[in-house]
Amino acid sequence: MSDARPTVQVDDDRVRVTRWDFEPGATTGRHRHEYPYVVVPVIDGRTQITTADGETSYSELRSGESYARAAGSTHEVVNAGEAALTFVEIELKG
Predict the structure, then answer these.
(1) What per-residue confidence (pLDDT) applies to 79?
(2) For 29, phi and psi rounded to 5 degrees?
(3) pLDDT tens by residue, 26-63
(4) Distance CA 18, CA 24 (A)
(5) I need a labelling partner for 40 at 20 to 30 A (CA). Which of 7, 47, 52, 60 fits?
């Protein structure tokens, strides 16, 4: 699998905004979220999420339909679709 491409757009004492670009099959690798965060899909797509305990689930992302998660989750995100996928992740530091 190839790696997803993160592009940090803002990183200050309050927020970190990262654009993630994934080709089909690309992965973030396993990571832990230190801060609560919001994800804003830029285009429609499908992700496979694998948690630290090995549980796998799938999500259908829709452009502009944001979702939020609490800090502390550990997971890997893979583009499970057949087309490129892009979303913006906004981490809330304080």
Answers:
(1) 98
(2) 75, 165
(3) 999 999 999 999 999 999 999 999 999 999 999 999 99
(4) 19
(5) 52
